[in-house]
Amino acid sequence: MNVVQAVVLGIVEGLTEFLPVSSTGHLLVTERLLGLKVGSDALTGFTAVVQVGAILAAVVYFFRDILQLAGAFFRGLGSSRGRRDPEFRFALAVVLGSIPIAIVGFLLKNVVKDLQVLLVVGIGLIAFSPVMLYAERRAAQNRSERSLTLKDAAIIGGAQCIALIPGVSRSGATISTGLLRGLDRVSATRLSFLLGIPALVGAGAYELKDATKGDASTAAIALATVVAFVVAYASIAFLLKFVSTHRISAFVPYRVGLGAIIVVAVVIARLT
Which of 88, 116, 122, 166 could potentially form a cystine with 263 if both were Cys, beta carbons 3.0 to 4.6 Å apart? Predict the structure, then answer.
Protein backbone atom coordinates (compact mmCIF):
# COMPACT_ATOMS: atom_id res chain seq x y z
CA MET A 1 0.00 0.00 0.00
CA ASN A 2 1.42 3.37 -0.98
CA VAL A 3 0.74 6.74 0.61
CA VAL A 4 -1.87 7.75 -1.99
CA GLN A 5 -3.87 4.56 -1.39
CA ALA A 6 -3.63 5.09 2.37
CA VAL A 7 -4.90 8.67 2.08
CA VAL A 8 -7.80 7.59 -0.16
CA LEU A 9 -8.86 5.02 2.44
CA GLY A 10 -8.57 7.67 5.16
CA ILE A 11 -10.88 9.99 3.21
CA VAL A 12 -13.44 7.23 2.60
CA GLU A 13 -13.37 6.19 6.26
CA GLY A 14 -13.76 9.73 7.56
CA LEU A 15 -16.51 10.57 5.09
CA THR A 16 -18.64 7.46 5.64
CA GLU A 17 -18.08 6.41 9.27
CA PHE A 18 -20.90 8.54 10.64
CA LEU A 19 -23.17 8.78 7.61
CA PRO A 20 -25.84 6.04 7.33
CA VAL A 21 -24.22 4.53 4.23
CA SER A 22 -21.90 1.86 5.71
CA SER A 23 -18.24 2.77 6.09
CA THR A 24 -17.25 -0.92 6.05
CA GLY A 25 -19.01 -1.39 2.73
CA HIS A 26 -17.38 1.68 1.19
CA LEU A 27 -13.97 0.63 2.44
CA LEU A 28 -14.37 -2.84 0.92
CA VAL A 29 -15.39 -1.37 -2.43
CA THR A 30 -12.52 1.14 -2.33
CA GLU A 31 -9.98 -1.52 -1.35
CA ARG A 32 -11.13 -3.65 -4.27
CA LEU A 33 -10.88 -0.72 -6.69
CA LEU A 34 -7.37 0.07 -5.40
CA GLY A 35 -6.29 -3.52 -6.02
CA LEU A 36 -5.51 -4.24 -2.37
CA LYS A 37 -5.70 -7.67 -0.75
CA VAL A 38 -9.20 -7.50 0.68
CA GLY A 39 -9.69 -9.55 3.85
CA SER A 40 -6.02 -9.83 4.79
CA ASP A 41 -5.14 -9.39 8.46
CA ALA A 42 -2.85 -6.48 7.62
CA LEU A 43 -5.52 -4.57 5.70
CA THR A 44 -8.16 -5.31 8.35
CA GLY A 45 -5.79 -4.00 11.01
CA PHE A 46 -4.99 -0.92 8.93
CA THR A 47 -8.63 0.03 8.43
CA ALA A 48 -9.42 -0.59 12.11
CA VAL A 49 -6.64 1.78 13.17
CA VAL A 50 -7.74 4.41 10.64
CA GLN A 51 -11.23 4.12 12.13
CA VAL A 52 -9.75 5.32 15.41
CA GLY A 53 -8.93 8.60 13.66
CA ALA A 54 -12.60 9.02 12.84
CA ILE A 55 -13.60 8.16 16.39
CA LEU A 56 -11.11 10.65 17.80
CA ALA A 57 -12.94 13.25 15.71
CA ALA A 58 -16.12 12.35 17.59
CA VAL A 59 -14.27 12.57 20.91
CA VAL A 60 -12.98 16.06 20.06
CA TYR A 61 -16.34 17.22 18.69
CA PHE A 62 -18.23 16.00 21.75
CA PHE A 63 -15.43 16.56 24.26
CA ARG A 64 -17.39 18.90 26.51
CA ASP A 65 -20.42 16.58 26.42
CA ILE A 66 -18.24 13.60 27.24
CA LEU A 67 -16.74 15.38 30.24
CA GLN A 68 -20.21 16.28 31.51
CA LEU A 69 -21.49 12.75 31.01
CA ALA A 70 -18.43 11.25 32.70
CA GLY A 71 -18.86 13.56 35.67
CA ALA A 72 -22.56 12.74 35.94
CA PHE A 73 -21.83 9.02 35.67
CA PHE A 74 -19.32 8.98 38.52
CA ARG A 75 -21.47 11.24 40.67
CA GLY A 76 -24.37 8.87 40.13
CA LEU A 77 -22.28 5.91 41.22
CA GLY A 78 -21.68 7.63 44.54
CA SER A 79 -25.08 9.07 45.42
CA SER A 80 -28.79 8.40 44.93
CA ARG A 81 -29.31 12.07 44.11
CA GLY A 82 -26.79 11.80 41.29
CA ARG A 83 -28.62 8.77 39.90
CA ARG A 84 -31.74 10.89 39.44
CA ASP A 85 -29.85 13.24 37.13
CA PRO A 86 -30.92 12.77 33.46
CA GLU A 87 -27.25 13.17 32.49
CA PHE A 88 -26.44 10.09 34.58
CA ARG A 89 -29.13 8.05 32.83
CA PHE A 90 -27.83 9.16 29.45
CA ALA A 91 -24.25 8.28 30.40
CA LEU A 92 -25.40 4.90 31.72
CA ALA A 93 -27.30 4.33 28.48
CA VAL A 94 -24.13 4.93 26.47
CA VAL A 95 -22.15 2.51 28.65
CA LEU A 96 -24.77 -0.25 28.60
CA GLY A 97 -25.56 0.30 24.93
CA SER A 98 -21.91 -0.30 24.05
CA ILE A 99 -21.77 -3.74 25.68
CA PRO A 100 -23.79 -5.83 23.17
CA ILE A 101 -21.60 -5.05 20.15
CA ALA A 102 -18.45 -5.70 22.18
CA ILE A 103 -19.68 -9.17 23.13
CA VAL A 104 -21.19 -10.11 19.77
CA GLY A 105 -18.30 -8.65 17.81
CA PHE A 106 -15.78 -10.67 19.80
CA LEU A 107 -17.71 -13.94 19.74
CA LEU A 108 -18.52 -13.71 16.03
CA LYS A 109 -15.34 -12.04 14.80
CA ASN A 110 -14.56 -14.86 12.35
CA VAL A 111 -18.12 -14.91 11.03
CA VAL A 112 -18.09 -11.15 10.56
CA LYS A 113 -14.80 -11.37 8.70
CA ASP A 114 -16.26 -13.97 6.34
CA LEU A 115 -19.17 -11.62 5.58
CA GLN A 116 -16.87 -8.90 4.31
CA VAL A 117 -17.43 -9.56 0.61
CA LEU A 118 -18.89 -7.26 -2.02
CA LEU A 119 -22.10 -9.23 -2.57
CA VAL A 120 -22.99 -8.97 1.14
CA VAL A 121 -22.24 -5.24 1.03
CA GLY A 122 -24.59 -4.72 -1.93
CA ILE A 123 -27.38 -6.77 -0.35
CA GLY A 124 -26.91 -5.06 3.02
CA LEU A 125 -27.15 -1.58 1.49
CA ILE A 126 -30.39 -2.47 -0.27
CA ALA A 127 -31.99 -4.67 2.40
CA PHE A 128 -31.63 -2.22 5.31
CA SER A 129 -32.90 0.80 3.35
CA PRO A 130 -36.62 -0.05 3.88
CA VAL A 131 -35.94 -0.11 7.63
CA MET A 132 -34.69 3.47 7.45
CA LEU A 133 -37.77 4.49 5.48
CA TYR A 134 -40.05 2.75 7.99
CA ALA A 135 -38.26 4.35 10.96
CA GLU A 136 -38.76 7.82 9.54
CA ARG A 137 -42.42 7.12 8.73
CA ARG A 138 -43.12 5.83 12.24
CA ALA A 139 -40.93 8.37 14.07
CA ALA A 140 -42.84 10.25 16.77
CA GLN A 141 -39.79 12.35 17.70
CA ASN A 142 -41.41 13.34 20.98
CA ARG A 143 -38.51 12.37 23.25
CA SER A 144 -35.10 13.91 23.88
CA GLU A 145 -31.92 12.20 25.03
CA ARG A 146 -32.70 13.25 28.60
CA SER A 147 -35.59 10.75 28.61
CA LEU A 148 -33.44 7.73 27.71
CA THR A 149 -34.11 4.57 29.69
CA LEU A 150 -32.09 1.39 30.19
CA LYS A 151 -34.55 -0.38 27.90
CA ASP A 152 -33.76 2.16 25.18
CA ALA A 153 -30.06 1.53 25.73
CA ALA A 154 -30.46 -2.23 25.45
CA ILE A 155 -32.55 -2.04 22.27
CA ILE A 156 -30.42 0.58 20.51
CA GLY A 157 -27.21 -1.12 21.62
CA GLY A 158 -28.54 -4.42 20.30
CA ALA A 159 -29.41 -2.78 16.98
CA GLN A 160 -25.80 -1.67 16.71
CA CYS A 161 -24.84 -5.35 16.42
CA ILE A 162 -26.77 -5.61 13.14
CA ALA A 163 -24.23 -3.22 11.65
CA LEU A 164 -21.59 -5.95 11.91
CA ILE A 165 -23.11 -7.04 8.59
CA PRO A 166 -21.30 -4.98 5.93
CA GLY A 167 -23.64 -2.63 4.11
CA VAL A 168 -26.11 -2.14 6.97
CA SER A 169 -24.37 0.89 8.57
CA ARG A 170 -23.86 1.32 12.30
CA SER A 171 -25.20 4.87 12.32
CA GLY A 172 -28.12 3.86 10.11
CA ALA A 173 -29.07 1.04 12.49
CA THR A 174 -28.75 3.05 15.69
CA ILE A 175 -30.40 6.24 14.40
CA SER A 176 -33.30 4.27 12.91
CA THR A 177 -33.81 2.35 16.16
CA GLY A 178 -33.63 5.58 18.14
CA LEU A 179 -36.35 7.05 15.93
CA LEU A 180 -38.50 3.95 16.45
CA ARG A 181 -38.06 4.45 20.20
CA GLY A 182 -39.51 7.96 19.84
CA LEU A 183 -36.29 9.98 20.05
CA ASP A 184 -36.04 13.11 17.99
CA ARG A 185 -33.66 12.88 15.05
CA VAL A 186 -30.85 14.99 16.54
CA SER A 187 -30.91 13.09 19.85
CA ALA A 188 -30.87 9.75 18.04
CA THR A 189 -27.92 10.92 15.94
CA ARG A 190 -25.94 12.21 18.94
CA LEU A 191 -26.53 8.93 20.75
CA SER A 192 -25.35 7.04 17.66
CA PHE A 193 -22.10 9.02 17.60
CA LEU A 194 -21.43 8.50 21.31
CA LEU A 195 -22.20 4.76 21.11
CA GLY A 196 -19.69 4.48 18.28
CA ILE A 197 -16.78 5.79 20.35
CA PRO A 198 -16.22 2.79 22.69
CA ALA A 199 -17.22 0.26 20.02
CA LEU A 200 -14.79 1.43 17.35
CA VAL A 201 -11.95 2.32 19.70
CA GLY A 202 -12.19 -1.25 21.01
CA ALA A 203 -12.10 -2.66 17.48
CA GLY A 204 -9.11 -0.51 16.59
CA ALA A 205 -7.21 -1.56 19.71
CA TYR A 206 -7.94 -5.24 19.05
CA GLU A 207 -6.71 -5.06 15.45
CA LEU A 208 -3.69 -2.88 16.21
CA LYS A 209 -1.36 -5.88 16.27
CA ASP A 210 -2.04 -6.54 12.56
CA ALA A 211 -1.87 -2.94 11.34
CA THR A 212 1.85 -2.99 10.52
CA LYS A 213 2.03 -6.49 9.03
CA GLY A 214 1.38 -5.28 5.49
CA ASP A 215 3.26 -3.01 3.12
CA ALA A 216 1.84 0.21 4.57
CA SER A 217 4.51 2.24 6.34
CA THR A 218 3.99 3.76 9.74
CA ALA A 219 3.96 7.18 8.06
CA ALA A 220 1.18 6.08 5.66
CA ILE A 221 -0.90 4.70 8.54
CA ALA A 222 -0.42 7.90 10.55
CA LEU A 223 -1.28 10.12 7.58
CA ALA A 224 -4.41 8.11 6.76
CA THR A 225 -5.52 8.34 10.39
CA VAL A 226 -5.06 12.12 10.44
CA VAL A 227 -6.98 12.47 7.17
CA ALA A 228 -9.79 10.31 8.57
CA PHE A 229 -9.89 12.55 11.67
CA VAL A 230 -10.23 15.78 9.69
CA VAL A 231 -12.81 14.45 7.23
CA ALA A 232 -14.82 12.73 9.98
CA TYR A 233 -14.97 15.93 12.04
CA ALA A 234 -16.48 17.75 9.08
CA SER A 235 -18.83 14.81 8.45
CA ILE A 236 -20.13 14.89 12.05
CA ALA A 237 -20.81 18.62 11.85
CA PHE A 238 -22.58 18.15 8.53
CA LEU A 239 -24.80 15.27 9.66
CA LEU A 240 -25.92 16.94 12.89
CA LYS A 241 -26.94 20.02 10.92
CA PHE A 242 -28.49 17.91 8.17
CA VAL A 243 -30.72 15.79 10.45
CA SER A 244 -32.10 18.90 12.15
CA THR A 245 -34.03 19.68 8.97
CA HIS A 246 -33.87 16.50 6.84
CA ARG A 247 -34.82 12.85 7.17
CA ILE A 248 -32.14 10.15 7.22
CA SER A 249 -34.19 8.43 4.51
CA ALA A 250 -32.64 11.03 2.17
CA PHE A 251 -29.67 8.64 2.01
CA VAL A 252 -31.82 5.72 0.84
CA PRO A 253 -31.67 6.42 -2.93
CA TYR A 254 -27.87 6.51 -2.76
CA ARG A 255 -27.76 3.30 -0.72
CA VAL A 256 -30.09 1.43 -3.06
CA GLY A 257 -28.33 2.74 -6.17
CA LEU A 258 -24.87 1.80 -4.94
CA GLY A 259 -26.10 -1.56 -3.67
CA ALA A 260 -27.68 -2.37 -7.03
CA ILE A 261 -24.48 -1.45 -8.88
CA ILE A 262 -22.42 -3.70 -6.61
CA VAL A 263 -24.79 -6.67 -6.92
CA VAL A 264 -24.99 -6.35 -10.71
CA ALA A 265 -21.20 -5.99 -10.99
CA VAL A 266 -20.62 -9.09 -8.85
CA VAL A 267 -23.14 -11.16 -10.81
CA ILE A 268 -21.65 -10.10 -14.15
CA ALA A 269 -18.15 -10.86 -12.90
CA ARG A 270 -19.18 -14.35 -11.80
CA LEU A 271 -21.00 -15.07 -15.06
CA THR A 272 -18.00 -14.04 -17.14
Answer: 122
Collapse the DSSP code of 183 into the 3-class scheme (helix H, G, I; strand E, B; otherwise coil) and give the result: strand
| Rounded percentage of the chain residues whose pLDDT exceeds 90 | 47
Strand positions, DSSP E, 140-253: none
Query: Number of helices and strands (H, E) in the chain?
Result: 13, 0
Cα gap 52→213, rounded to integer Å: 18
Percentage of the chain beyond pLDDT 70 is 94
In tens, the pLDDT along 69-111 reads 899 888 888 888 888 888 888 888 888 888 888 888 888 888 8
Half-sphere exposure of 267 (CA within 13 A, CB side): 8
143 phi, psi to nearest 5 deg: -130, 145
Going from the C-alpha of 205 to that of each of 8, 65, 202, the distances in angstroms are 22, 23, 5
Domain count, the chain: 1
Q: Is 52 helix (H, G, I), strand (E, B) or coil?
A: helix
